[in-house]
Amino acid sequence: MTRADVIVIGGGANGTSTAFHLASRGVKNVLLLERRQLGAGATGKSGSLVRMHYTNEPESRLAFESLKVFRDFRNIVGGDCGFEPIGFLQIVPRGYEAALARNVARQQRLGIATEVVTPGRLNELLPGCRTDDVGAAAWEPQSGFADPNATTFAFAEAARRLGATIETGCEVLRILTERGRVVGVETPRGRVEAPVVVLVPGAWAAPLLAPLGLDFGLVPHRIQITIFRWPAGFTRRHCVVIDAIHQSWFRPEGAATTLIGVELGAGHADPNAFDEGVDPEFVATCRNALAGRLPAMREATMRGGWAGMISMSADGRPIIDQIPSVAGLYCMLGDSGTSFKTSPAIGKCLAEWIVDGKPRTADLTPFRSTRFAEALPWHDEDNYGGQGLTISR
Ligand SMILES: Cc1cc2nc3c(=O)[nH]c(=O)nc-3n(C[C@H](O)[C@H](O)[C@H](O)COP(=O)(O)OP(=O)(O)OC[C@H]3O[C@@H](n4cnc5c(N)ncnc54)[C@H](O)[C@@H]3O)c2cc1C
Questions:
Q1: What are the chain's domains?
Q2: CA atoms within 13 A on the CB side of 48
Q3: Which of 52, 204, 250, 389 to mutate to test the pocket of ligand 1 (most atoms within 8 A of CB)?
Q4: Which of 43, 142, 312, 326 is the 20 to 30 Å CA partner of 214?
Q5: pLDDT of the chain along its 393 residues, tens only?
Q6: pTM of the entire structure?
Q7: How far is the CA of 347 from the centre of ligand 1 (A)?
């Protein structure tokens, strides 16, 4: 293809969702270019928690709009996203009870099914859990987790059915501009012209942004997860949990294992040369965090793990925008370890913006790229003390 109406760069959950939503809104020549394979970035490695609980309304809104898609994926997109609505618990330490209550109230006003639960009720929702260190918890009965690869493949397949072209193994080397507007991209297979380009490259953004004079302070981070086999006697599948006391997040994986990640703090890494395996020290950290909440897991056997690359923005929130200095260039950058669950709504909003002139599903102003230059980075009043964190924030 030498000409497209819209080129999407990146075949993760957000890129494929955008391609699907563009095609379903009638855009004829959508071309998605992925340098490796679908799901090669953060998406393929994602823990893929689908929860509505955030310490701010804009992210909860994107998550809630996305939940509607995950719940009815077969009808809206087609195929199977592997969504399992097994319920979600947000656990916070003492001192944050009031903040949690305010966040839950905010989410309830959006229509999200959520409630504050006492430590007593926690034991019913997460049998065998330690509660003496818990300040409060929030419960979302309709949340859970999905299969990030299946979701991405299904978005791509649906986009294809609607006429989009998905090319894997094709790296975009440069975004081409003329007189301040996008005119196409350059690839090893040649140039493709297009008046609109959507940049969704995950942790690999820098080489495409720098030649355009754009620097949003994005930092690639290596994020790990570990999987533990449940010990003898532990047989009941648990719900999805973010434990702000141990800065961990976990969910079941299959019928008898738990997938867990723990925050390690800032970790710059080269997205083109990182260890895809899990560090031995990280396994021990995860076992401690898991046993700290579910003491029976002290005897859980490690069964595997991996690492993936995310892109942290300077304030830990994604940048979803039409770049003001480059007409025709839209982006979803700085996923900040939290943008799988919101990918259905992010793709929809970007498609609405491109086709209808503005996003309708959600207001994207809080996610604007200029907030850093304006010295107005994001700050949530009702946070749980983990502002610099990634996935468990
Ligand atoms: C271990 C781990 C656990 C996580 N857990 C959760 C979770 O529980 N819940 C949640 O919501 N999020 C979670 N995340 C974050 C989530 O997975 C990401 O935010 C999300 O998948 C980002 O999707 P994306 O499409 O924006 O980017 P990516 O999935 O990173 O996709 C970007 C794609 O662009 C391609 N690309 C880059 N440059 C080019 C180029 N020049 N030309 C062509 N293609 C290019 C890459 O190869 C890649 O496939 C987790 C991430 C990790 C790593």
A1: 6-48+148-216+314-371 (3.50.50.60), 86-142+219-312 (3.30.9.10)
A2: 26
A3: 204
A4: 43
A5: 799 999 999 999 999 999 999 999 999 999 999 999 999 999 999 999 999 999 999 999 999 999 999 999 999 999 999 999 999 999 999 999 999 999 999 999 999 999 999 888 999 999 999 999 999 999 999 999 999 999 999 999 999 999 999 999 999 999 999 999 999 999 999 999 999 999 999 999 999 999 999 999 999 999 999 999 999 999 999 999 999 999 999 999 999 999 999 998 767 889 999 999 999 999 999 999 999 999 999 999 999 999 999 999 999 999 999 999 999 999 999 999 999 999 999 999 999 999 999 999 999 999 999 999 999 989 899 999 877 788 777
A6: 0.98
A7: 14
**Distances from the Cα of 353 to the Cα of 8, 64, 172, 316, 345, angstroms:** 14, 19, 23, 23, 12
Backbone angles phi, psi at 309, to 5 degrees: -110, 130
Residue 43 Cβ contacting ligand 1 at under 6 Å: yes
Residue 378 contacts residue 393 (beta carbons within 8 Å): no
Residue 66, amino acid: S
